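ENTRY TYPE: paired fold submission
RECORD: A
CONTENT: sequence, then structure tokens
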Amino acid sequence: MAHPSQLGFQDAASPVMEELLHFHDHALMIVFLISTFVLYIIVAMVTTKLTNKFILDSQEIEIIWTLLPAIILILIALPSLRILYLMDEINDPHLTIKAMGHQWYWSYEYTDYEDLGFDSYMIPTQDLAPGQFRLLETDHRMVVPVESPIRVLVSAEDVLHSWAVPSLGVKMDAVPGRLNQTAFIASRPGVFYGQCSEICGANHSFMPIVVEAVPLEHFENWSSLMLEDA
């Protein structure tokens, strides 16, 4: 999860987020190179007293500064489109979970099970156990198995919400009357935190998302206990 004074992204916990981090570094290096080159040109133009009459009217230079930006844009666009299609790809999900946004909590329904669903409320600050995070912990976590494709159907019951977990590279708007879907694969066990990312009213800051990725055997034990309690 994020920590104070952090400058970069959170550590990736899914293949898609790893791709997004690599693309970010790729694009950032291009931006740095362009910025350095432009700064050098500006400094050179300001400090030198010499002029070159061939630079003032040169078709070759005009061709270069037309083609070079086009090539750079292609180098950025192609990886971007590849990741865009990867994020939309949902092949044979092992588990489907419906996440419903409410003012101001989330409810989860495991549609592959007959009666497995629960509401997820933020734990108030005064009720936090030692080691728990303020404004991020919930009374019920969304538990998923690791290394399994998970499909999340996202909708809302009242106003616009957004289901977002940065470590997993997931962010999907929850729109009343509409069912959006996204998918992720948790590549390692852990607890991953997110929050509603669409301003949804007075308590928008108090509807966190907690995804707990566990081995398949532990997930089966958890689901059995939840079904027994239901």
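RECORD: B
CONTENT: sequence, then structure tokens
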Amino acid sequence: VACPTLYAYLRKSSPDVPARLLEYDERFGQYGDDFAFYDYNQPEALPPAMKHAFSIVVADPPYLSQECLEKVAKTVSFLARPEGSFLLLLTGEVQKDRALELLNVRPCGFKPQHSNKLGNVFRLFTNYDPVDRLGGWDRSDGATI
């Protein structure tokens, strides 16, 4: 969800891995059937075949607002399988508590860097402990996980 750079990387490095790109920018329509138009203001306005169809969902909300994260969380719930999916959320650290509340995701030790030098600390959150990958869950704040 809104991760065109990740999608392009996956297509190049692992072309056999099935992936879909949900993105507002219709220039990504160049990816054909792998592209679906996505507007976070309409979190479930997606093709019906996508409902509960994904075992892995990666989301990078376009804004750091509470409203945006809440709507993207609705999209993630729409896409994820009811029996469980791996969720990866890329967003600002300021969203830590809200992300836990909405998606039950926790920050990982891995801290993504943006080439645009964003003013906010960016974090990767997951709903599973990646253990030795991605730095595992970040336990530096003493939280019990």
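NOTES ON RECORD B: The helical segments are 4-13, 66-79, 96-103. Strands lie at 21-23, 35-37, 56-59, 86-92, 106-107, 122-126.
STATUS: closed
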